Amino acid sequence: MDYKKKIYILLAVGIFFLSTSGILIKVASAPPLITAFYRMFLTVLILTPYFVIKHRSDARYFLDYRPMLVGFLLAVHFILWISSIQYTDISNSVIFVALQPLFTIILEYFFAREDLKEGAIIGIVMAVIGSSIISIGDFYQLGDKLFGNFLALSAALFASSYLFIGRGVRKKLNYFPYLYILYSYAALFLGVGVYLFDIPFTGYGTNNYLIFLALALGPTLVGHSILNLAVRYLPTSIVSLSILGEPILTTFLAWLLLNEQVRITTMFGGGFILGGIYLASVYNNHQNKKKNKLKQAQS
Length: 299
What we know:
Belongs to the EamA transporter family. This protein is an all-alpha fold and 299 residues long. The protein has one domain. The protein is 82% helix and 0% strand. The protein has helices at 3-27, 32-54, 65-87, 90-97, 100-111, 118-137, 145-165, 167-172, 175-196, 205-233, 236-242, 245-258, 264-298. Helix 4 runs parallel beside helix 13 (264-298). The longest helix is centred in the last third of the chain and has 35 residues, at 264-298. The radius of gyration is 19 Å and the shape is globular.
């Protein structure tokens, strides 16, 4: 088996672990803020020995305000997304969070002066249509699932914001120390939130602590690490688009393991959203390749 096939298999494993996060969060009985805190705290705890041994010289970047800001945005993203799963179906939540690439394209248009190409516009329109279809299907539960959908949508916006703002820091730092500092600040802000809201840090039972550990090890460490590895060997477009498999797989796992039914409106709306993300991502990656070739020709 050649290395590319191995990377594709590894990528599929990474997507699988990422797709388990919604299931794990759904079965946890701890408050969303506690779940988010322990997910980040345990991740940082596991990564600390390697950071101290290999990357302690990068600790100076803890004093840079940008990782602190990005860590705050990541913390808010986790709070919103984990909370959304308490109010709406897992399928709805993961589909709305998957809108992150479209929000990134919009942020690039407003703040990085990137042009909105035709494909990106079509993708955004399709995503808006899909979101409307899902929301109409949830309208009869206005105070419940519609609110959960809004939280998931907001989580996607904060996810794209922390990725967008963090680009400048990522150019200075290697991926591992950047993630470590980012996760550390996210854990810190989440811990402050737990303290301010006077939520107990302990007393959630063995099952919940095992779920927290599973979230740290599976979706966070294994899932994200594999995506980072895959980007080094496969085109970014392939890795980005493979992430679209996460909401599909999560929805299937929710149906299989939690007996969560998927409504027709979710399937149709989700199809529009995922199709829109696919179109926008393909066009965006295509434009980036053209720009890079033009820069190389000019240099």
